[in-house]
Fold this protein.
Amino acid sequence: MNKLTVSSAPHIRSSSATNRVMLDVIIALLPTAIAGSVIFGWQAIATILICVLSSVLAEFIYNLILKKEQTVGDFSAAVTGLLLGLNMPANFTEIWWQCIIGSAFAIIVVKCLFGGLGANFANPAITGRIFMMICYTGTVGKSVFPIIGSAELSTGATPLVVLGSDNISSLPSLFDMLLGLRGGAIGEVCILALLVGFVYLVVRKVIYFETPLIMIGTVFVLSLLVSNDPVYALYQVMSGGLILGAVFMATDYVTTPINRTGKMIFALGAGLITVLIRLYGSYPEGVSFAILLMNILSPYIEKWTAKRPLGAKRVKGGTK
Amino acid sequence: MSLFMLGRAKVPHRKNTANMKAERIPAPTSVTLLTSQHIGAPATPTVKVGDKVKVGTLVAEASGYVSSPVYSSVSGTVKKLEPHLMYNGRSCQAIIIESDGEMTPDESIAPPTISSFDELSAAVRASGLVGLGGAGFPTSVKLDAEKKGLIKKIILNGAECEPYITSDTRTMLDDGEYIKAGVELLQKYVSADEVIVGIERNKPECIANLTSLFAGNEKVRVVSLPDTYPQGAEKILIHNTAGLDVPEGGLPADVGCLVMNVTSVAFLAKYAESGMPLVEKCVTVDGSAIKSPKNLIVPIGTPIKDVIEAAGGTSCEVGKILYGGPMMGMAVYSDEEPVLKNTNAITVMNKKDAEPKKLYPCIHCGRCAEICPMGLNPTLYAKAMKVSDPADRRARLNDAKINLCMECGCCSFVCPSARPLVETNKLAKADLRAAQNK
């Protein structure tokens, strides 16, 4: 008789795996990456690639130098790089080296130094983006316009900037907004592609459908209340990085509360802060800051929304 | 209704043996009867080396209130009395009996007289019955809640939610009459006003059979449960059938429930009819290394390797052997280990299935907290166990209600990072016990 394995139950496990979850996020982002490349051309492809490559490489080198187990195989660095790239304008010639620094910052400072995958409190892609926005406002904050579609789309300001001004007659049509024929970051413009990714993630059970819907819904409702104009509210929803942020970054596991109700509160708060920054802040866009601020609140939301276990004694002020 | 039922893990069913009637295996050449086959104090051996025993002869008597006697499962001679290292790392006495191959029943065996609750309780105690669903809690102790007038509902557990296992399925199909007789016996002496039978809906034939058997008994209700794991866990079963929640630190009796496995109830009726104590078990033999899965009737104490052989042997190299199913089953270190009273299955896995899944860090996805039927957050225990200060660690574990974890394994099952979640909980509970005993 050969030696038997002795281990504690359970002796079977589901087929889900963390690298498969990450791969699903990458697959869900592909339509957006392809749409961005079609809309903005080679500069978009090159920007995405350099972010992905430098993110993966940053993690690889970090692990190598610190003699840690190699973790690039879990694909989480690739996800961060891809998200960061999609948050950039298609401005490769000016920002390529800034992308390398931003990726390294996101991976090493925001993720690895906190203990690697699962241990970071803030979303690396978002924090990386904010870091780059602050450091390289001129180039990273630049509006890049589609290389396809009618000529008038290729000039002027991004819809979000237009919405902030009084002259909203120069907005692209809602249909163009849906397709992504407007100025903005590579991954935020094509709403249609983002929605395809959203459906994929929900079908694959990677995310709960309500998290993005609540965040987007909050922005819509608050914009409607402020303006009393459904078309304006619709533009607010489709402008800037809201859909990209709501689907792919407000649903990040590591930096959001663990319970489903907690995730709902997170989404509500992120939507609220987005609107406050957009309407009353000095920045035209608030999605990144909103998600980052809610990242910080996550541990508290998690505590407040803990479920009462079956049969647990009620403690004054709820179960801890 | 079913929308609010708890226990939602989509664990594979693999009920390959559901249509296979149990076959009796040939008399084993020797059996190893352990004195600890139940929760509570080990039984005390009453035989010595050289004693002749028959099927049903007492070989070890209950040594306390929470304990249970052990009877010989073969006829033959006591060969050895020795300490035995069990699957759980504890030791107890083993009584090794060499079989004469005759399986002669003990002449003293006669049906018990049951005409009052006290006689029923004594008979249950004498029968050696323990919870046959897997926990192995002495049934007489559960039943004694009646003395305090606590039992309002009797809940029969026919969920059989573990993958592979179909021994209860066969009881419900082949021994339905005994389940009925057992329920009637309980109804006669236990003051419960309702009997609920909970069966997972992946066993429609069992639901149909018991529904028709109990058609004339308006106090009995058969409930169809979701076909998700862990429907058979006691607290989940009570919640899903009776809508009651067992309070923290309490027992089913605290909400007026007596929960018994269907096979335990059927055995009760068999014992009342014949007086033959618990000496054999229906065991499902299945798993990825088993050539032809089967249900077998096996004398308690038969070495696992004899049972596997009787089922037709293995088809490949064996990686892991379990008492019970793969969700809560216990891995054994040797195929010489004996079948116990509460063994309802032997799962034999091949090398590939025995390999651990690739480990990743916790990504905080929340699937464990979402799936936990008790509403716990397993990540808190994993975090707490990293705290080195014992007082702080134990306070965190208690705050997160670790005592409510019933170790069903759903959290570990769903974890995409293969974190040892329920495994950590078991360690954490041991840590708390150690602190208490100090």
Summary: Chain B touches chain A through 70 residues (CB under 8 Å). Residues 2-15+110-274 of chain B form a domain with the Rossmann fold fold (CATH 3.40.50.11540).
